[in-house]
Specification:
The protein contains six helices and seven strands. By secondary structure, the chain is an alpha/beta fold. A seven-stranded mixed sheet has the order 2-1-3-4-6-5-7, covered by helices on one side. The chain is globular, with a radius of gyration of 16 Å. 33% of the residues are buried.
C-alpha cells in the first residue's frame, strides 16, 4: 500500500490557517507563555528525521527564510511521524518541530534525529496506559504536540540540558529510557 492510500489526514483550510497563525505568532514572538526565541534566532527550518520503527528517513526543509511553512513538507513530516501501532496520521504541531530544531541548533549539530514516538493514535496511547508504559492518559502525543527522540552520538543528559536551557515547551526524561521528550506545551520539565 503506498503513502497516498495510507494517508487519512489532509490539509483543510482550517488546519492551514492554524499553522499559518502559529507560524506568524512564533516568528513574531507573540505566543502565550515564556518564549525567549525571536524570529532572528530561529534556525534554518530543516531537519533530518528517522522513524526508528519503520527505518524511514526524511531530510526536510519545513519553513523558508521568510517564515512560511511548506505544506507539502509538513505532510511528509506528518506521514513519517505517524502512529507506528495503527498507521494513523496526525498533524504534528509546527511548534514542536521548532522545539526540536532549536535544540539541535543549540547543540550545534546537524545529525539525524531518531524519533521514538511522534503522533500517537488514541488507541495506541490507551494501550500504553493500560500496560503501564510511560504514557499520560491525555498525552500531548495524541494532539501531535510531542516527540520522543534521541540523537545518536549525543548523550541524553546533554540533549536534555540543551532543551532545558531554551525554556521552550516541555522537556521530559526517564530513567532507563533511550529518549528525551519534547513538546509544545508550556515550559516545564521532569525526570522520573
Amino acid at each position: 500500500m503506498d503513502r497516498a492510500d495510507q494517508s487519512t489526514w489532509a490539509w483543510t483550510r482550517r488546519a492551514f490557517l492554524q499553522v499559518s497563525l502559529v507560524g506568524t505568532l512564533l516568528l513574531s514572538g507573540r505566543l502565550v507563555g515564556p518564549q525567549p526565541v525571536q524570529a532572528r534566532e530561529l534556525p534554518e527550518g530543516r531537519l533530518t528525521l528517522v522513524n526508528v520503527w519503520t527505518d524511514e528517513r526524511l531530510d526536510v526543509t519545513y519553513r523558508d527564510e521568510s517564515g512560511t511553512y511548506d505544506l507539502a513538507a509538513l505532510d511528509d513530516v506528518n506521514y513519517l511521524l505517524r502512529c507506528h501501532y495503527t498507521g494513523e496520521i496526525g498533524a504534528i504541531d509546527v511548534r514542536v518541530l521548532e522545539h526540536v530544531n532549536l535544540v539541535q541548533n543549540k547543540l550545534g549539530i546537524q545529525e539525524e534525529i531518531h524519533i521514538i514516538s511522534g503522533f500517537r493514535s488514541p488507541e495506541y496511547n490507551d494501550f500504553l496506559v493500560r500496560t503501564g508504559q510511560r504514557a499520560a492518559r491525555n498525552s500531548l502525543h495524541i494532539q501531535g504536540q510531542a516527540i520522543d527522540l534521541n540523537i545518536p552520538g549525543i548523550p541524553l543528559k546533554k540533549l536534555r540540558q540543551a532543551a532545558l536551557e531554551l525554556k521552550y515547551g516541555g522537556v521530559g526524561a526517564y530513567q532507563h529510557s533511550n529518549y528525551v521528550h519534547l513538546d509544545s506545551g508550556p515550559f516545564r520539565y521532569w525526570y522520573r
